[in-house]
Amino acid sequence: MLKAAYRIAWKDVVGDLRRSSSLSSMLFFAVAVLVVFQAAFEPDRQSAVKLLPGLLWATVLFTSLMGLGRVFQAEEENGAFEGLLLASVPRGAVFLGKWLGNLLLTLLVQAMILPLTMILFNVDAWHVIHLIFGVLVLGILGLTGLGVLLAAMTQAARSRETLLALLLLPLVAPLLIAGVQATAGVMVVDGHPGPWIKLLLIFDTVYLALAPWGFSWLVEE
Amino acid sequence: MVHLAVTGLSHRFGRQQVLRGLDLTMAAGECVVLFGDNGSGKSTLLTLLSTRFAMQKGRYLLNGLDSADSGAEIRERLVFVSHNSHLYGHLTPVENLLFFADLRRLQCSDELLRETVSAVGLGKFADRPTRWFSAGMKKRLTLARVLLAKPALLLLDEPYSALDSQGVEWLNSMLNDFLAGGGMIVMASHDPQRVAALKHRPKFLQKGSLFDSKESANC
Protein backbone atom coordinates (compact mmCIF):
# COMPACT_ATOMS: atom_id res chain seq x y z
CA MET A 1 0.00 0.00 0.00
CA LEU A 2 2.79 2.41 0.95
CA LYS A 3 4.78 1.63 -2.20
CA ALA A 4 1.75 2.33 -4.38
CA ALA A 5 1.06 5.57 -2.47
CA TYR A 6 4.69 6.61 -2.84
CA ARG A 7 4.59 5.89 -6.59
CA ILE A 8 1.40 7.95 -7.05
CA ALA A 9 2.93 10.86 -5.11
CA TRP A 10 6.18 10.53 -7.10
CA LYS A 11 4.22 10.61 -10.37
CA ASP A 12 2.40 13.79 -9.29
CA VAL A 13 5.49 15.62 -8.06
CA VAL A 14 7.57 14.64 -11.10
CA GLY A 15 4.70 15.63 -13.38
CA ASP A 16 4.35 18.99 -11.71
CA LEU A 17 8.06 19.73 -11.79
CA ARG A 18 8.30 18.73 -15.46
CA ARG A 19 5.32 20.81 -16.47
CA SER A 20 5.99 23.51 -13.87
CA SER A 21 2.24 23.81 -13.62
CA SER A 22 0.98 24.00 -10.01
CA LEU A 23 4.26 24.93 -8.38
CA SER A 24 5.05 27.94 -10.52
CA SER A 25 1.51 29.33 -10.49
CA MET A 26 1.21 28.83 -6.72
CA LEU A 27 4.52 30.61 -6.19
CA PHE A 28 3.68 33.43 -8.55
CA PHE A 29 0.30 33.93 -6.91
CA ALA A 30 1.76 33.92 -3.38
CA VAL A 31 4.43 36.46 -4.29
CA ALA A 32 1.83 38.69 -5.96
CA VAL A 33 -0.36 38.61 -2.81
CA LEU A 34 2.56 39.48 -0.57
CA VAL A 35 3.73 42.36 -2.75
CA VAL A 36 0.21 43.80 -2.98
CA PHE A 37 -0.26 43.61 0.80
CA GLN A 38 3.13 45.15 1.41
CA ALA A 39 2.40 48.02 -0.96
CA ALA A 40 -1.11 48.56 0.42
CA PHE A 41 -0.32 48.55 4.15
CA GLU A 42 3.36 49.49 4.32
CA PRO A 43 3.35 48.15 7.88
CA ASP A 44 5.93 49.17 10.46
CA ARG A 45 7.78 46.43 12.34
CA GLN A 46 5.20 46.16 15.16
CA SER A 47 2.08 46.08 13.02
CA ALA A 48 3.80 43.67 10.65
CA VAL A 49 4.07 41.14 13.50
CA LYS A 50 0.30 41.40 13.99
CA LEU A 51 -0.38 41.20 10.26
CA LEU A 52 1.96 38.33 9.44
CA PRO A 53 -0.02 35.33 10.83
CA GLY A 54 -3.20 36.26 8.98
CA LEU A 55 -1.29 37.07 5.82
CA LEU A 56 0.62 33.80 5.91
CA TRP A 57 -2.52 31.74 6.34
CA ALA A 58 -4.38 33.66 3.62
CA THR A 59 -1.49 32.80 1.31
CA VAL A 60 -1.57 29.16 2.43
CA LEU A 61 -5.30 28.96 1.77
CA PHE A 62 -5.28 30.52 -1.68
CA THR A 63 -2.18 28.74 -2.94
CA SER A 64 -3.57 25.44 -1.62
CA LEU A 65 -6.81 26.07 -3.48
CA MET A 66 -4.81 26.57 -6.66
CA GLY A 67 -2.92 23.33 -6.14
CA LEU A 68 -6.02 21.38 -5.15
CA GLY A 69 -7.85 22.57 -8.26
CA ARG A 70 -5.25 20.72 -10.32
CA VAL A 71 -4.67 17.71 -8.14
CA PHE A 72 -6.51 15.35 -10.49
CA GLN A 73 -5.47 17.10 -13.70
CA ALA A 74 -2.98 14.38 -14.68
CA GLU A 75 -5.69 11.75 -14.20
CA GLU A 76 -7.99 13.44 -16.71
CA GLU A 77 -5.54 12.70 -19.47
CA ASN A 78 -6.21 9.36 -21.20
CA GLY A 79 -8.70 8.29 -18.52
CA ALA A 80 -5.87 7.62 -16.08
CA PHE A 81 -8.13 7.93 -13.03
CA GLU A 82 -9.98 4.85 -14.27
CA GLY A 83 -6.60 3.16 -14.54
CA LEU A 84 -5.83 3.99 -10.90
CA LEU A 85 -9.12 2.49 -9.79
CA LEU A 86 -8.50 -0.65 -11.83
CA ALA A 87 -5.37 -1.31 -9.82
CA SER A 88 -5.64 -3.89 -7.08
CA VAL A 89 -4.31 -1.51 -4.40
CA PRO A 90 -6.77 -0.30 -1.75
CA ARG A 91 -8.57 2.94 -2.56
CA GLY A 92 -6.98 4.38 0.58
CA ALA A 93 -3.56 4.00 -1.06
CA VAL A 94 -4.74 6.05 -4.04
CA PHE A 95 -5.93 8.76 -1.67
CA LEU A 96 -2.72 8.63 0.33
CA GLY A 97 -0.63 9.02 -2.83
CA LYS A 98 -2.64 11.94 -4.16
CA TRP A 99 -2.57 13.62 -0.75
CA LEU A 100 1.18 13.14 -0.29
CA GLY A 101 1.92 14.59 -3.71
CA ASN A 102 -0.22 17.65 -3.04
CA LEU A 103 1.17 18.02 0.48
CA LEU A 104 4.76 18.02 -0.75
CA LEU A 105 4.10 20.67 -3.39
CA THR A 106 2.18 22.88 -0.95
CA LEU A 107 4.91 22.58 1.69
CA LEU A 108 7.57 23.36 -0.89
CA VAL A 109 5.76 26.57 -1.82
CA GLN A 110 5.34 27.59 1.84
CA ALA A 111 9.00 26.83 2.59
CA MET A 112 9.91 29.42 -0.05
CA ILE A 113 7.17 31.89 0.85
CA LEU A 114 7.78 32.05 4.61
CA PRO A 115 11.30 33.60 4.51
CA LEU A 116 10.23 35.85 1.66
CA THR A 117 7.32 37.14 3.74
CA MET A 118 9.59 37.89 6.67
CA ILE A 119 12.00 39.80 4.45
CA LEU A 120 9.27 41.76 2.66
CA PHE A 121 7.56 42.75 5.90
CA ASN A 122 10.81 43.22 7.80
CA VAL A 123 9.65 40.93 10.63
CA ASP A 124 12.34 39.98 13.09
CA ALA A 125 11.15 36.44 13.90
CA TRP A 126 13.99 34.43 12.39
CA HIS A 127 14.70 32.73 15.73
CA VAL A 128 11.22 31.13 15.65
CA ILE A 129 10.99 30.50 11.92
CA HIS A 130 11.13 26.72 12.50
CA LEU A 131 8.19 26.99 14.92
CA ILE A 132 6.17 29.08 12.45
CA PHE A 133 6.89 26.54 9.73
CA GLY A 134 5.92 23.74 12.11
CA VAL A 135 2.55 25.37 12.71
CA LEU A 136 2.10 25.80 8.94
CA VAL A 137 2.87 22.09 8.43
CA LEU A 138 0.27 21.13 11.04
CA GLY A 139 -2.39 23.24 9.35
CA ILE A 140 -1.46 22.15 5.83
CA LEU A 141 -1.72 18.46 6.79
CA GLY A 142 -5.43 18.78 7.52
CA LEU A 143 -6.13 21.39 4.86
CA THR A 144 -4.72 19.27 2.03
CA GLY A 145 -6.26 16.07 3.45
CA LEU A 146 -9.75 17.48 3.31
CA GLY A 147 -8.93 19.38 0.12
CA VAL A 148 -7.91 16.26 -1.85
CA LEU A 149 -11.16 14.55 -0.84
CA LEU A 150 -13.21 17.55 -1.99
CA ALA A 151 -11.13 17.83 -5.18
CA ALA A 152 -12.00 14.19 -5.96
CA MET A 153 -15.64 14.97 -5.26
CA THR A 154 -15.71 17.97 -7.60
CA GLN A 155 -13.37 16.78 -10.34
CA ALA A 156 -16.16 15.93 -12.75
CA ALA A 157 -18.01 19.22 -12.20
CA ARG A 158 -17.90 21.89 -14.89
CA SER A 159 -16.91 24.75 -12.58
CA ARG A 160 -15.02 22.54 -10.21
CA GLU A 161 -12.60 25.19 -8.91
CA THR A 162 -15.46 27.42 -7.75
CA LEU A 163 -17.27 24.45 -6.27
CA LEU A 164 -14.12 23.30 -4.51
CA ALA A 165 -13.65 26.72 -2.92
CA LEU A 166 -17.31 26.87 -1.89
CA LEU A 167 -17.10 23.49 -0.17
CA LEU A 168 -13.64 23.85 1.32
CA LEU A 169 -13.75 27.34 2.81
CA PRO A 170 -16.52 26.80 5.39
CA LEU A 171 -15.10 23.43 6.41
CA VAL A 172 -11.55 24.66 6.98
CA ALA A 173 -12.46 28.00 8.61
CA PRO A 174 -11.95 26.61 12.16
CA LEU A 175 -8.60 25.14 11.13
CA LEU A 176 -7.52 28.47 9.65
CA ILE A 177 -8.48 30.34 12.83
CA ALA A 178 -6.50 27.85 14.91
CA GLY A 179 -3.56 28.21 12.50
CA VAL A 180 -3.57 32.01 12.69
CA GLN A 181 -3.77 31.98 16.50
CA ALA A 182 -1.05 29.33 16.86
CA THR A 183 1.25 31.26 14.49
CA ALA A 184 0.66 34.49 16.43
CA GLY A 185 1.31 32.55 19.65
CA VAL A 186 4.74 31.31 18.59
CA MET A 187 5.81 34.73 17.27
CA VAL A 188 5.46 36.68 20.50
CA VAL A 189 7.49 36.04 23.64
CA ASP A 190 4.56 35.58 26.04
CA GLY A 191 2.28 33.82 23.54
CA HIS A 192 0.26 30.71 24.39
CA PRO A 193 0.09 28.67 21.22
CA GLY A 194 -0.43 25.33 23.05
CA PRO A 195 -4.25 25.13 22.97
CA TRP A 196 -4.35 26.24 19.33
CA ILE A 197 -1.75 23.67 18.33
CA LYS A 198 -3.81 20.99 20.10
CA LEU A 199 -6.83 22.16 18.15
CA LEU A 200 -4.85 21.91 14.90
CA LEU A 201 -3.86 18.36 15.83
CA ILE A 202 -7.50 17.48 16.46
CA PHE A 203 -8.54 18.88 13.06
CA ASP A 204 -5.70 16.96 11.37
CA THR A 205 -6.74 13.73 13.05
CA VAL A 206 -10.39 14.13 12.14
CA TYR A 207 -9.80 15.22 8.53
CA LEU A 208 -7.12 12.63 7.83
CA ALA A 209 -9.14 9.83 9.42
CA LEU A 210 -12.31 10.64 7.49
CA ALA A 211 -10.84 11.65 4.14
CA PRO A 212 -9.50 8.21 2.97
CA TRP A 213 -12.74 6.56 4.00
CA GLY A 214 -14.76 9.26 2.20
CA PHE A 215 -12.57 8.88 -0.90
CA SER A 216 -13.06 5.10 -1.00
CA TRP A 217 -16.80 5.49 -0.68
CA LEU A 218 -16.85 8.23 -3.33
CA VAL A 219 -14.98 6.31 -6.02
CA GLU A 220 -16.97 3.12 -5.41
CA GLU A 221 -20.22 4.99 -5.90
CA MET B 1 -11.92 -26.80 -16.51
CA VAL B 2 -13.95 -23.62 -16.15
CA HIS B 3 -11.86 -20.63 -15.04
CA LEU B 4 -14.34 -17.85 -15.60
CA ALA B 5 -18.02 -18.16 -14.80
CA VAL B 6 -20.65 -15.46 -15.04
CA THR B 7 -24.23 -16.34 -14.14
CA GLY B 8 -27.36 -14.20 -14.29
CA LEU B 9 -25.51 -10.93 -14.81
CA SER B 10 -27.91 -8.00 -15.11
CA HIS B 11 -27.08 -4.31 -15.05
CA ARG B 12 -29.02 -1.11 -15.49
CA PHE B 13 -28.10 2.56 -15.77
CA GLY B 14 -31.03 4.45 -14.28
CA ARG B 15 -34.11 3.16 -16.09
CA GLN B 16 -32.18 1.61 -18.93
CA GLN B 17 -31.59 -2.11 -18.63
CA VAL B 18 -28.21 -2.67 -20.33
CA LEU B 19 -27.53 -6.33 -19.56
CA ARG B 20 -30.21 -8.97 -18.94
CA GLY B 21 -29.29 -12.17 -17.14
CA LEU B 22 -26.08 -13.02 -19.01
CA ASP B 23 -24.31 -16.34 -18.58
CA LEU B 24 -20.76 -16.94 -19.76
CA THR B 25 -18.24 -19.65 -18.97
CA MET B 26 -14.66 -19.86 -20.20
CA ALA B 27 -11.79 -22.28 -19.86
CA ALA B 28 -8.09 -21.47 -19.76
CA GLY B 29 -6.64 -20.58 -23.15
CA GLU B 30 -10.01 -19.53 -24.54
CA CYS B 31 -10.91 -16.30 -26.33
CA VAL B 32 -14.44 -14.95 -26.49
CA VAL B 33 -15.13 -12.11 -28.91
CA LEU B 34 -18.21 -9.99 -28.27
CA PHE B 35 -19.89 -8.55 -31.32
CA GLY B 36 -22.82 -6.18 -31.23
CA ASP B 37 -24.14 -2.80 -32.25
CA ASN B 38 -23.10 0.41 -30.53
CA GLY B 39 -24.78 0.58 -27.15
CA SER B 40 -25.45 -3.14 -27.00
CA GLY B 41 -23.59 -3.42 -23.70
CA LYS B 42 -20.17 -4.77 -24.76
CA SER B 43 -18.16 -2.14 -22.90
CA THR B 44 -20.44 -2.39 -19.86
CA LEU B 45 -19.88 -6.14 -19.73
CA LEU B 46 -16.10 -5.67 -19.95
CA THR B 47 -16.18 -2.99 -17.24
CA LEU B 48 -18.17 -5.28 -14.94
CA LEU B 49 -15.73 -8.14 -15.60
CA SER B 50 -12.94 -5.74 -14.60
CA THR B 51 -14.76 -5.28 -11.24
CA ARG B 52 -14.47 -1.52 -11.59
CA PHE B 53 -18.12 -1.37 -10.51
CA ALA B 54 -19.98 -3.69 -8.20
CA MET B 55 -22.41 -6.03 -9.95
CA GLN B 56 -26.06 -5.20 -9.37
CA LYS B 57 -27.28 -8.73 -10.00
CA GLY B 58 -25.60 -12.02 -10.79
CA ARG B 59 -22.41 -13.79 -9.85
CA TYR B 60 -18.91 -13.63 -11.31
CA LEU B 61 -16.11 -16.04 -10.49
CA LEU B 62 -12.56 -15.87 -11.83
CA ASN B 63 -10.25 -18.78 -10.94
CA GLY B 64 -12.49 -19.51 -7.98
CA LEU B 65 -12.50 -15.93 -6.69
CA ASP B 66 -15.91 -14.36 -6.22
CA SER B 67 -16.22 -10.71 -7.30
CA ALA B 68 -18.64 -10.10 -4.42
CA ASP B 69 -15.85 -10.32 -1.85
CA SER B 70 -12.58 -10.54 -3.81
CA GLY B 71 -12.73 -7.60 -6.23
CA ALA B 72 -9.15 -6.49 -5.56
CA GLU B 73 -7.81 -10.05 -5.95
CA ILE B 74 -9.65 -10.40 -9.26
CA ARG B 75 -8.27 -7.04 -10.46
CA GLU B 76 -4.80 -8.34 -9.65
CA ARG B 77 -5.38 -11.21 -12.10
CA LEU B 78 -6.61 -9.22 -15.07
CA VAL B 79 -5.59 -6.42 -17.40
CA PHE B 80 -8.23 -4.21 -18.99
CA VAL B 81 -7.27 -2.41 -22.18
CA SER B 82 -10.13 0.01 -22.72
CA HIS B 83 -10.63 2.91 -25.14
CA ASN B 84 -8.53 5.02 -22.78
CA SER B 85 -4.83 4.28 -22.61
CA HIS B 86 -4.58 5.15 -18.87
CA LEU B 87 -1.12 6.58 -19.65
CA TYR B 88 0.43 9.66 -18.09
CA GLY B 89 1.63 12.01 -20.80
CA HIS B 90 4.44 13.52 -18.74
CA LEU B 91 5.98 10.13 -18.02
CA THR B 92 8.10 8.11 -20.42
CA PRO B 93 7.08 4.57 -21.47
CA VAL B 94 9.52 3.09 -18.94
CA GLU B 95 8.14 5.32 -16.17
CA ASN B 96 4.55 4.53 -17.14
CA LEU B 97 5.27 0.81 -16.93
CA LEU B 98 7.09 1.26 -13.62
CA PHE B 99 4.06 3.11 -12.28
CA PHE B 100 1.78 0.30 -13.47
CA ALA B 101 4.10 -2.35 -12.00
CA ASP B 102 4.20 -0.67 -8.59
CA LEU B 103 0.42 -0.43 -8.47
CA ARG B 104 0.27 -4.16 -9.30
CA ARG B 105 2.99 -4.98 -6.75
CA LEU B 106 5.17 -6.45 -9.52
CA GLN B 107 8.92 -6.57 -9.04
CA CYS B 108 10.41 -5.20 -12.25
CA SER B 109 14.00 -4.19 -12.94
CA ASP B 110 14.78 -1.28 -15.23
CA GLU B 111 16.16 -3.81 -17.70
CA LEU B 112 12.90 -5.76 -17.78
CA LEU B 113 10.91 -2.57 -18.29
CA ARG B 114 13.11 -1.54 -21.20
CA GLU B 115 12.91 -5.03 -22.73
CA THR B 116 9.11 -4.85 -22.50
CA VAL B 117 9.04 -1.43 -24.14
CA SER B 118 11.25 -2.81 -26.93
CA ALA B 119 9.05 -5.90 -27.28
CA VAL B 120 6.11 -3.71 -28.26
CA GLY B 121 8.24 -1.87 -30.81
CA LEU B 122 8.83 1.33 -28.83
CA GLY B 123 12.46 0.81 -27.82
CA LYS B 124 13.60 3.97 -29.63
CA PHE B 125 11.08 6.04 -27.65
CA ALA B 126 11.68 4.52 -24.22
CA ASP B 127 12.78 7.82 -22.66
CA ARG B 128 10.41 10.26 -24.35
CA PRO B 129 7.24 11.55 -22.70
CA THR B 130 4.23 9.68 -24.04
CA ARG B 131 2.33 12.93 -24.54
CA TRP B 132 3.76 13.11 -28.05
CA PHE B 133 2.92 9.51 -28.98
CA SER B 134 0.46 8.65 -31.74
CA ALA B 135 -2.70 6.70 -30.85
CA GLY B 136 -1.12 3.53 -32.25
CA MET B 137 2.01 3.95 -30.12
CA LYS B 138 -0.13 4.52 -27.04
CA LYS B 139 -2.08 1.37 -27.82
CA ARG B 140 1.14 -0.64 -28.09
CA LEU B 141 2.38 0.72 -24.77
CA THR B 142 -0.95 -0.05 -23.12
CA LEU B 143 -0.66 -3.62 -24.39
CA ALA B 144 2.89 -3.82 -23.00
CA ARG B 145 1.23 -4.08 -19.58
CA VAL B 146 -0.04 -7.51 -20.58
CA LEU B 147 3.53 -8.74 -21.14
CA LEU B 148 4.56 -7.33 -17.78
CA ALA B 149 1.62 -8.49 -15.66
CA LYS B 150 0.99 -11.90 -17.32
CA PRO B 151 -2.66 -11.84 -16.21
CA ALA B 152 -5.09 -14.76 -16.17
CA LEU B 153 -7.73 -12.69 -17.95
CA LEU B 154 -7.30 -10.03 -20.59
CA LEU B 155 -10.19 -7.67 -21.31
CA LEU B 156 -9.88 -5.82 -24.60
CA ASP B 157 -12.23 -3.12 -25.83
CA GLU B 158 -11.72 -2.58 -29.57
CA PRO B 159 -8.01 -3.43 -29.40
CA TYR B 160 -7.43 -3.06 -33.15
CA SER B 161 -8.44 0.59 -33.30
CA ALA B 162 -5.52 2.92 -34.05
CA LEU B 163 -3.27 0.03 -35.12
CA ASP B 164 -1.88 -0.19 -38.67
CA SER B 165 -1.75 -3.52 -40.53
CA GLN B 166 1.66 -4.34 -39.04
CA GLY B 167 0.32 -3.52 -35.62
CA VAL B 168 -2.70 -5.78 -36.12
CA GLU B 169 -0.41 -8.64 -37.12
CA TRP B 170 1.80 -8.03 -34.10
CA LEU B 171 -1.22 -7.88 -31.77
CA ASN B 172 -2.72 -11.11 -33.07
CA SER B 173 0.61 -12.88 -32.67
CA MET B 174 0.92 -11.54 -29.10
CA LEU B 175 -2.64 -12.61 -28.27
CA ASN B 176 -2.10 -16.10 -29.74
CA ASP B 177 0.98 -16.49 -27.53
CA PHE B 178 -1.05 -15.31 -24.56
CA LEU B 179 -3.77 -17.89 -25.25
CA ALA B 180 -1.19 -20.63 -25.77
CA GLY B 181 0.13 -19.82 -22.29
CA GLY B 182 -3.31 -20.50 -20.78
CA GLY B 183 -4.60 -16.93 -20.58
CA MET B 184 -8.22 -16.04 -21.28
CA ILE B 185 -9.40 -13.15 -23.44
CA VAL B 186 -12.74 -11.39 -23.58
CA MET B 187 -12.70 -8.90 -26.41
CA ALA B 188 -15.25 -6.46 -27.78
CA SER B 189 -14.84 -5.83 -31.49
CA HIS B 190 -16.59 -4.53 -34.57
CA ASP B 191 -14.06 -6.11 -36.86
CA PRO B 192 -14.56 -9.85 -37.61
CA GLN B 193 -11.85 -9.77 -40.29
CA ARG B 194 -9.07 -8.72 -37.95
CA VAL B 195 -10.18 -11.15 -35.25
CA ALA B 196 -10.17 -14.01 -37.76
CA ALA B 197 -6.48 -14.67 -37.12
CA LEU B 198 -7.32 -15.57 -33.53
CA LYS B 199 -8.89 -18.86 -32.50
CA HIS B 200 -12.00 -17.53 -30.81
CA ARG B 201 -15.60 -18.19 -29.83
CA PRO B 202 -17.91 -15.44 -31.12
CA LYS B 203 -20.74 -14.15 -28.96
CA PHE B 204 -23.35 -11.65 -30.03
CA LEU B 205 -24.83 -9.06 -27.70
CA GLN B 206 -28.26 -7.85 -28.66
CA LYS B 207 -30.53 -5.78 -26.41
CA GLY B 208 -28.56 -6.83 -23.35
CA SER B 209 -28.67 -10.57 -24.03
CA LEU B 210 -25.87 -12.83 -25.20
CA PHE B 211 -26.31 -15.18 -28.19
CA ASP B 212 -24.11 -17.81 -29.81
CA SER B 213 -24.87 -16.74 -33.37
CA LYS B 214 -25.85 -13.60 -35.23
CA GLU B 215 -28.98 -15.31 -36.53
CA SER B 216 -30.28 -16.16 -33.08
CA ALA B 217 -29.44 -12.61 -31.93
CA ASN B 218 -31.56 -11.16 -34.73
CA CYS B 219 -34.55 -13.44 -34.08
Features:
heterodimer; A: 221 residues; mainly alpha; 83% helix; 0% strand; globular; B: 219 residues; alpha/beta; Rossmann fold; 2 domains; six-stranded mixed sheet; four-stranded antiparallel sheet; 8 helices; 10 strands; 28% strand
Task: Give an overview in words.
The complex is a heterodimer of chains A (221) and B (219). Chain A is an all-alpha fold and 221 residues long. Chain A has one domain (2-220). Chain A is 83% helix and 0% strand. Chain A is built from nine helices and no strands. Chain A has helices spanning 2-19, 22-41, 45-69, 73-76, 80-85, 91-120, 129-154, 160-187, 194-220. The longest helix of chain A has 30 residues, at 91-120. The two termini of chain A are 22 Å apart. The relative contact order of chain A is 0.15. Chain B is of the alpha/beta class and 219 residues long. Chain B folds into two domains: 2-77 and 151-218, P-loop containing nucleotide triphosphate hydrolases (Rossmann fold, 3-Layer(aba) Sandwich); 90-150. Chain B has helices at 42-49, 71-76, 93-103, 110-119, 135-149, 165-180, 192-195, 214-218; strands at 2-13, 16-27, 31-36, 57-62, 65-66, 78-81, 153-157, 184-188, 201-206, 209-211. In chain B, strands 6-7-8-3-9-10 form a six-stranded mixed beta sheet, with helices on both faces. Chain B has a four-stranded antiparallel beta sheet with strand order 2-1-4-5. In chain B, strand 4 (57-62) and strand 5 (65-66) form a beta hairpin. In chain B, helix 3 (93-103) runs parallel beside helix 5. The longest helix of chain B has 16 residues, at 165-180. The model of chain B has no long low-confidence stretch (mean pLDDT 88). Classes of the chains: A mainly alpha (221), B alpha/beta (219). Chain A binds chain B through residues 3-4, 6-8, 11, 14-15, 18-19, 74, 77-80, 82-90, 220, and chain B through 50, 52, 54, 72-73, 75-76, 80, 82-91, 95, 98-100, 102-105, 129, 138.
